[in-house]
């Protein structure tokens, strides 16, 4: 099962550990151990937060508190009759210490040393720890307290990877005895053991930041872990020899690795990329350990009476020991015999001591040889890994060499191509130099043209300055003419006004005279009208009277008519003369008017003539002025057109020349760059060829060197293997010799003691 970073403690327990805990209750020995790099959470997983919140475990409680709680819950639910005891030990620098031992009451803290406990073989292939405190517990909280006590006593120190790193391996064991009653009312005891192991971090010493003592300690820890690794490898590979005995850790876990226990391994890894190496190693261990096949076997149920008997016997022995110690009522013998025996005992003790010393020295030698063998093995492994690395290096060097050769051939081809390009470029350069010479001449011509153009431009600017002066003069002249014209127009307007005023006066006079004569004529005509009306009336009266009197006075009447006719003729003559007079007056006034009109027309004509003259003068002046302007403008336009044409032609030429020159210069620059590049390419190609030659040489040298080193290594490892085999054989034979001599001594001593104290046979425990 894989648990991600978000996995909860509960999930880990439920999936991985709970089934194992149930098996413990069925009488199996089970082990749960956590291993992995420092700081990856082994202690967190195994212990976590131990203390429970009111009645309940905290969410961060680890495997141990949960397992304990689970065991109690199940047993309580079954209403089982059970007993439980726990032990808690620490394995530090290959020394075992009891974490639950009663405190050393030394006065000074520095004197309070942790008492090391010996690990012994139980004769059935297992290991027994002598003197380990087994504490009987009745509730989970008691276990939690013991756990806290033991955890607090564990040796921790800070490393670069973990602030509080456990420096030791810790084994917490729970022993459970459950009483079962058979059908025949026989009481059986079912025993199960649960080992909960928190290994020390499998750290890289350099990376963990461990220094001096701690580095040695890390080495020791690595030794245990290294042996664990070797045991796993041997089990996976089904080797004949499994090196359980090489470390105390593997001796302790023997039953759990390939034995009859059920085992759960928790591998903790860090998600950090910096820990990749260790993560890979841990996962490799875990992967290999997964394929170990244990042969789980439940412990035999013991009959309660047998168990009780054993216990009673043990108790009896202890009681006797206690009593003898208390009452000092051991064996009483005569003094001489006591002295002789004491002397013999002393001799024997000395002998034993010397033998023990010998044995110790032999053991040390064996340890040394073992160390040497292990170191040799490690060295061999290192060399093998170095060899592998070197082989890989050689392979990569070969590959690099092939790549370089390929690159070299590619570079040669590109160099040839570049040579071809360079020769083409040189030819082109030659022709370009020729063209450059031509262009130089053209450029010189162009510079002459430019100087001419500049002269012309100068002239043009002079002309423009002159034109400006002329324009200024013309402007002042125009101002003067306009002023004159204005004065003339103002004078003629005054004259016209005066003339019109006099004409108005004369017209007024003429019209008043005319109206007077018309009035007079009107009055006369009215008078003549009246006269004519009265004459007509008289004539009518006369006609009437004549008609009346015609008959009577026809003659008189003719006389009267005659006299009246003459009067009328006279009157008409007067009237004609008067009318002639009036007509004459009218004619006269008409002639006067005509004269006046003629005078005014004459005056008007004069005025008009004058204004015509002045207008003609003005128009002439303006025409002249505009003619001048037109002439100037046309001249200027011509000049400008000319100069524009010239300058545009010059500029066109200049542009053309400039373009050509710049193209030539660009070409020249490109040629230079090509030259530089060609130089660089030749340099590079020489460098590459030199480098390739050097690399070739180096590769050959390295190959030679590697071959030499490999043969040396081969030689060293062969000799190491031989030596190790020789040492192992020697150690084996010495060990056997020692064993046999020890057995002999033991036999001798037993014989002696048998002879001396046939009833009280002491037991000698010789390891
Ligand atoms: N799953 C997790 N959730 C929260 N905190 C964690 C977890 N795993 C580890 N830690 C924290 O990381 C730190 C290191 O963890 P821990 O001491 O358990 O590592 P370790 O593997 O036992 O280290 P060492 O081998 O050095 O003893 C602790 O502070 C622990 O509380």
From TrEMBL:
Belongs to the TRAFAC class myosin-kinesin ATPase superfamily. Kinesin family. KIN-5/BimC subfamily. Responsible for microtubule translocation. May be important for the organization of phragmoplast-specific arrays of microtubules. Plays an essential role in stabilizing the mitotic spindle. Required during mitotic cytokinesis. Keywords: ATP-binding, Coiled coil, Cytoplasm, Cytoskeleton, Microtubule, Motor protein, Nucleotide-binding, Signal. Residues 1-292 form the Kinesin motor domain. GO terms for molecular function: ATP binding; microtubule binding; plus-end-directed microtubule motor activity. It comes from the Eukaryota. ATP binds at residues 36-43. The lineage of its organism: Eukaryota, Viridiplantae, Streptophyta, Embryophyta, Tracheophyta. It is found in: Cytoplasm, Cytoskeleton, Spindle. GO terms for cellular component: mitotic spindle; spindle microtubule. It comes from Zizania palustris (Northern wild rice). This is Kinesin-like protein. Residues 308-407 form a coiled coil. GO terms for biological process: microtubule-based movement; mitotic spindle assembly; spindle elongation. InterPro entries: KIF11-like, Kinesin_motor_CS, Kinesin_motor_dom. PROSITE patterns: KINESIN_MOTOR_1, KINESIN_MOTOR_2. Its main location: cytoplasm. The keyword Coiled coil applies.
């Amino acid at each position: 099962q894989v648990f991600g970073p978000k996995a909860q403690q509960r999930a880990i327990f439920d999936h991985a550990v709970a089934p194992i805990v149930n098996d413990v209750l069925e009488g199996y020995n089970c082990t749960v151990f956590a291993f992995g790099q420092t700081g990856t959470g082994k202690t967190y997983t195994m212990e976590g937060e131990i203390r429970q919140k009111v009645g309940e475990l905290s969410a961060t409680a680890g495997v141990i508190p949960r397992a304990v709680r689970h065991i109690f819950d199940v047993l309580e639910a079954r209403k089982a009759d059970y007993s439980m005891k726990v032990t808690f030990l620490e394995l530090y620098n290959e020394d075992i210490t009891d974490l639950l031992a009663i405190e050393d009451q030394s006065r000074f803290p520095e004197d309070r040393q942790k008492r090391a406990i010996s690990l012994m073989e139980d004769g059935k292939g297992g290991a027994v720890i002598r003197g380990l405190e087994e504490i009987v517990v009745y509730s989970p909280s008691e276990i939690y307290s013991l756990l806290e006590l033991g955890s607090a006593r564990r040796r921790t120190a800070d490393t670069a990877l973990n602030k509080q790193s456990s420096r030791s391996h810790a084994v917490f064991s729970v022993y459970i005895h459950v009483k079962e009653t058979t059908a025949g009312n026989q009481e059986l005891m079912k025993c199960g053991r649960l080992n909960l192991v928190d290994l020390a971090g499998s750290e890289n010493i350099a990376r963990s930041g461990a220094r001096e003592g701690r580095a040695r300690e890390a080495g020791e820890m690595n030794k245990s872990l290294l042996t664990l690794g070797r045991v796993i490898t041997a089990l996976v590979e089904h080797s004949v020899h499994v090196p359980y005995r090489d470390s105390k850790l593997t001796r302790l876990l023997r039953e759990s690795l390939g034995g009859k226990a059920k085992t759960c391994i928790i591998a903790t890894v860090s998600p950090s990329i910096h820990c990749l190496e260790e993560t890979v190693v841990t996962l490799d261990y875990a992967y290999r350990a997964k394929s170990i096949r244990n042969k789980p076997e439940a412990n035999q149920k013991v009959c309660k009476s047998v168990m009780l008997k054993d216990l009673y016997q043990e108790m009896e022995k202890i009681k006797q020991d206690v009593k003898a110690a208390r009452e000092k009522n051991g064996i009483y013998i005569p003094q001489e015999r006591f002295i002789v025996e004491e002397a013999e005992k002393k001799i024997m003790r000395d002998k034993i001591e010397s033998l023990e010393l010998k044995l110790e020295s032999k053991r040390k030698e064996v340890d040394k040889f073992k160390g040497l063998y292990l170191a040799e093995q490690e060295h061999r492994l290192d060399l093998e890994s170095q060899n592998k690395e070197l082989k890989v290096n050689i392979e990569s060097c070969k590959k690099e060499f092939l790549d370089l050769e390929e690159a070299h051939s590619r570079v040669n081809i590109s160099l040839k191509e570049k040579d071809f390009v360079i020769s083409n470029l040189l030819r082109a350069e030659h022709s370009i130099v020729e063209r450059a010479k031509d262009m130089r001449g053209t450029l010189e011509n162009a510079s002459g043209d430019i100087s001419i153009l500049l002269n012309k431009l100068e002239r043009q600017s002079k002309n423009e300055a002159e034109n400006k002066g002329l324009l200024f003069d013309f402007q002042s002249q125009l101002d003067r003419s306009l002023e004159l014209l204005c004065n003339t127009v103002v004078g003629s307007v005054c004259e016209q006004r005066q003339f019109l005023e006099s004409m108005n006066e004369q017209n007024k006079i003429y019209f008043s005279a005319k109206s007077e004569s018309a009035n007079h004529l009107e009055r006369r005509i009215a008078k003549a009208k009246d006269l004519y009306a009265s004459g007509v009336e008289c004539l009518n009266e006369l006609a009437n009277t004549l008609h009346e009197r015609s008959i009577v006075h026809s003659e008189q009447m003719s006389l009267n008519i005659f006299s009246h006719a003459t009067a009328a003729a006279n009157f008409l003559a007067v009237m004609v003369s008067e009318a002639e007079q009036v007509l004459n007056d009218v004619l006269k006034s008409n002639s006067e008017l005509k004269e006046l009109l003629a005078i005014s027309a004459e005056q008007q004509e004069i005025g008009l003539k004058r204004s015509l003259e002045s207008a003609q003068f003005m128009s002439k002046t303006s025409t002249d002025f505009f003619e001048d302007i037109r002439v100037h403008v046309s001249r200027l336009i011509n000049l400008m057109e000319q100069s524009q044409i010239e300058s545009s032609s010059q500029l066109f030429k200049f542009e053309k020349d400039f373009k050509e020159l710049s193209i030539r210069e660009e070409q020249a620059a490109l040629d230079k760059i090509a030259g530089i590049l060609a130089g660089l390419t030749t340099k590079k190609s020489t460098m590459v060829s030199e480098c390739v030659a050097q690399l070739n040489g180096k590769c050959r040298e390295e190959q030679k060197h590697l071959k030499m080193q490999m043969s040396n290594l081969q030689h060293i490892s062969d000799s190491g293997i031989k030596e190790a085999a020789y040492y192992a054989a020697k150690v084996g034979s010495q060990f056997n010799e020692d064993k046999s001599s020890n057995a002999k001594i033991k036999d001798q001593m037993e014989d002696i003691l048998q002879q001396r104290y046939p009833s009280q046979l002491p037991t000698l425990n010789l390891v």
